[in-house]
Amino acid sequence: MGDEWMIKERIIKKTLVIPGKTVSLKDFGTGWAHYTELKDITKEDLKKAAEELLEENRQALASAQELLWASNIYSVLIVLQGMDTAGKDGTIRHVMSGVNPQGVDVSSFKVPTPEEVDHDFLWRYSIKLPSRGSIGIFNRSYYEDVLVVRVHPEILDRMRLPPGKKNGKFWEERFEDINAFERHLAHNGTLILKFFLHISKEEQKKRLLKRLENVEKHWKFSQSDLAERQYWDSYQDIYEKMLENTSTEYAPWYVIPADFKWVARTLIADIISTKIQALDLHYPEVSDEAMANINRAKTELNGEKK
Ligand code: ATP
Fold it and tell me: For the chain, what are the domain ranges?
């Protein structure tokens, strides 16, 4: 067990984008066979171990979330990004399945509405941030504003930015704004964890074909998925820039290999539960006065006539 734990720790360390370091997505891998730590394990054994670990982490996460809620000091913001079909929705469903739904909010962000365009680019995300004690999951996030918008800069034309703003420093300034926003949240008690679900182009093709071939998956297919696939290489470049400019001590990025859903879900569940547990949360202490009230209530209820 000791060995297994060390292997897991080493793999998780490899998914972390070290702040300030140049990022090449090719170094991260999208499967699991590239991890030398796993070279002596068969796929079947690994999958079985991963599923057991996922189950353990689901339970750990359920307890950690209860404590997070009771202590009511920290909030947790989980950001999920990835190319279409990378598995963001499924990850949320599987990782969070044991958690009390009252303490978790999932927000998905699509093309900004006119009301959203009427505000600064971070506004629509700010109003969905988790409150103390809660977990907020962003299925896509303000990172779209340095991803899809950077791949298709014409989107900016309808954002009504002040003249001269779209200068050579535009993206650099957006990264600065995002880092400042996250630093502010971290200072105020938000644990921020960001996951990039990293799939290969071949795996995306398989998943898109599955959507086309399976009647029950037809609803998930969108023509825009194919259109965006044409920009695969631009997205990879722009993801690299985003990762290297916005992975910080207070809001790190993890590049999660996502060609195998069970790998991605297990790693993400482990990172989230470990990080929440590390907050060192405690149930609130009961004051002497509250304890006296509890004892009085017990006596009163026990003394009720039938
Ligand atoms: P998902 O793939 O996230 O599960 P979806 O593909 O079904 O969801 P869509 O209706 O396609 O959801 O909405 C997501 C689309 O909105 C994506 O193409 C995304 O790039 C786009 N989008 C999100 N944020 C922005 C933004 N700030 N500016 C422009 N487009 C955005």
Answer: 4-302
Predicted pLDDT of residue 2 = 60
Alpha-carbon distance of 227 to 231, in angstroms, equals 8
What is the value of pTM for the model shown?
0.94
Q: Is 244 in the pocket of ligand 1 (CB under 6 A)?
A: no
> Collapsing DSSP states into helix, strand and coil, what is residue 254?
strand
d(CA 34, CA 166): 41
The CATH class of the 4-302 domain is alpha beta
Quick check: CB of 198 below 6 Å from ligand 1? no
Determine the distance separating the centroid of ligand 1 and the alpha carbon of 66, expressed in angstroms: 32
- Residue 107 belongs to what H/E stretch? strand 104-108
Higher pLDDT, 153 or 221: 153
Distances in Å between the Cα of 165 and the Cα atoms of 113, 171, 253 are: 21, 10, 28
Q: Is any atom of ligand 1 closer than 6 Å to the C-beta of 88? A: yes
Ligand 1 atom 6 nearest Cα:
84
**pLDDT single digits (tens) 246-273:** 999 999 999 999 999 999 999 999 999 9
Identify the residue whose tokens are 């930015």: 161
